[in-house]
Amino acid sequence: MIDFFAKELPNDPGMKLFNPMHIAISIVFVILLILIVVFRKKLRKFGHYTVIRRTAAAILFANMFIHYAARIILGIWSLEEDLPLHICFVTNFFMMYILFTDNKHKLYRVVYFFTLIGPLPAIVWPDLHRGPSGWVFYQFIISHHFLILVSAYCLLVLGYETGIKSAVAAFFVGNGYVGAIAVMNSIIGTNYVMLTSLPDQLYEIYPFLNAMPAFFWLELVGILVVMTAYVPAFFARRERNNSKS
Q: What is the reported pTM?
């Protein structure tokens, strides 16, 4: 049981960067995302929004509950790695609330950008040391790939909205959060949000990363992701405006 919930094992190579497993999962993810885009109008007609929202929220909740409950019960939880402070984890909790309450007018406008800021880079450059034989593999898929798919469903099917002001707000909120985590990291010697250092495999593949501190690259990627996330939000809003006119 402990082996199943362990974050790494000597005989489990995990999901290596750009290996067949990583590529295959990424392809499936992109296909599902495209299907949501292509069939967004049919999905709107399908309805059952409340059931779908709450089912998605229940999946996110079960994912986090199993992850933390198992690590605590098995005695493998650690202060250095298991506080729910990474952006992806925090965003998962906010999305649970949004999906349960249908909070599309205030919270989602900003949280939408964080459903991409954290998960998207992790999907492109995963640092996952377990394959399908370990729980963390499924936890990773749900809290990253599934989270983005749910967010896309909210934006394109449920009609949740966001805009440029929310993008700017997300930038400042994100930087404020990162600043607070940086202080905490320096006090207790942790590496939450990867502010102290990026995964070793990234330095091996991209040696130029050593030229600047980890925060610089995280800031750069964060800005690029916010800009990328704004594009579908812009077109979704324009489509809704056109349908009303």
A: 0.95
